[in-house]
Amino acid sequence: MSEKDSNFNQNEIKPVHTNKVGGSPFKGVVGWIDNRLPIIRMFKYEYLDFQVPKNLSYLWSLGGILMICLIFLIVTGLALGMHYKPSSSEAFTSVEKIMRDVNYGWLLRYAHMNFASFFFIAVYIHIFRGLYYGSYKEPRQLMWLIGIVIFFMMMATAFLGYTLPWGQMSYWGATVITNLFSAVPLVGEGIVTWLWGDYAVGDSTLNRFYVLHWLLAFGILGIVIFHVIALHIVGSNNPSGIEPVDTRDTVSFAPFTTSKDLFAMLIFLLAFVLITMYAPNYLGHPDNYIPADPLITPAHIVPEWYFLPFYAILRSIPDKLLGVIAMVSSIAVLGLLPWLDLSKVRSSVFRPVWKQFVFLFVLDFFVLMYVGGMPAEGIYVLISRVGTVYWFLFFLVIAPLVSLTEKPLPMPKSIHEYEDWKKQGKIKTFKIF
Amino acid sequence: MSMRIGKNKEKSKHLKFFKKIMSSLLKFSLFFFLLIFNVSNSSSAEKQEKLLKQSWSFDGFFGKFDRASLQRGYQVYTEVCASCHSMNLLSYRNLSEVGGPSFSEEEVKAIASKVEVLDGPNDSGEMFKRPGKPSDKFASPFANEKAARAANGGAYPPDMSVLVKARAGGPDYIYSILMGYTDKPPKDVKLEDGVYYNKYMPGNKIKMSKPLSQDSVKYSDGTPTTEEQLSKDVVTFLTWASEPHLEARKRIGFKTVVYLLILTVLVYLVKKKIWLRVEPKV
User: What is the pTM of this model?
Assistant: First the structure.
């Protein structure tokens, strides 16, 4: 290291600022605290005065909704954790004890269960939003990547959580998924035994899954904070995909975004309450109310609904190792999108060709979800193969090809001009988008 | 359509052609999807009889258990089902709890005292038998799973505590199983000893003999003891057993929905008012 770079060059005399007290926009006690711990002004700058594009649609409310889901999941999880017993002989009955004897235990458990499902509903819409409006492009690539890490962690956490009630689907789901690691050449069997902590899925597996479920839940919270910090650096994308220029393009976070997001959250919460209170087991599988039995395999082992598209990709490939690779890379490939889609235009509103492929991709997602829940035989295998091929084609071939050949529609110069064009009917968008 | 600022006619022609292809592709895949869905549905319908859908007292937004039916259902359970099926997760005290069969505490004490419970060890290290208390779990018909299998031709009668939640179709499925026995199975079905034919059982073979028939239980309240009535009562009881807080859930659910609806409307109006500052009415 040269002398110039060194922070420890004691030969040069420079003023130092170890005491940074001051600079608060507040007065009195609040100012006194804020001068010493600047979180109050941070909250003001980042959550009250923060400028966001004024044309954000309700699809931009999903971020806040996801945060609410995560907090609710952690709170209900804490309460449940105080009554749950992670042992293969007691887990099932301890969950039922929560449902029967703990005050409002049934509410806590049903809420936790269904919040997990609603977390995935929200995250899928959130990812679709990013895909459709090109939110992954410069300068938001890192946010997109952090998002994919969060999605992987969510899937792991949800899988671990699903094993905890120790019903038939918990047990056999855990068996199927952990067995996937045996596909790794040479060390596969060793990894599986290491994961199980035993020579079969059993008591020690459940115990560590419980610990990891907790660990990952808080891990998600940590990474989400990075996601949000990065958002406050790069700013929100918007339906036009054009960066805001002046105050004609933006509104302040409070009260505009907050009131809009609150309304969206309440609608989301209404849907959640209706499912949780009137059909709490609708999104689950009845077999999970049968205690785990290593001697009886269920007729069809199916994962939770939110894993079905990836389960279909896994099963579409006859080779176990390649299937696992395909499943993992079907999500990881999202991370390459910022470098595969070379178009400078962000929003699909101005990309007539790409837009069609995005909708086809959404259809593909639902088709895969459907076949993932069906037995892997006959026509379903063929459909899942077609679906898998399109999934990868979409990212690896269609994205670069379309971005190089497509001619984008004429674009307005700013967000307020975009809004004018929309009013004049020059731009066709969906109402809720 | 409206924003084709038509500089490049050549390009837009390509675009139209492309759009045509895409939309027909979408339509085709949708059609394909529906076709498969229909085929798969009809093929599974051939194997599986449609369940007998009943209207239950606990259905719907304001559903509540019919108390008398719960009490009768408990009678059917104890006199018929309990000779083979355990209910490990329930205690006698549950029978007097809110939202359940609402037996009085005296009645529950009397019910519990009729069973003998193995307790202990006492101070001299001996196990002893005593009459049951309301806090005891429901007595099991067999000492363990092996004993249950030995007595039932190798089949293990499942615990009934959460049975309704553990079967696709829930109450309708259990009801259909109870009503699904036929005197003469189809000619092409061969039944081994101790195996019975049931229309609604997956695979149509069941190791439980027909449990309920006309007058197999005598009701004291004068309710007719038809097969349908007995089945309905016992299924109501089993549904309560697997969802003891169903009534509270629906009650709280309704209040929450009403509260949220009002709040949502208010928040929407607030939001509209706030956004008028940005988008004044023209």
Answer: 0.90
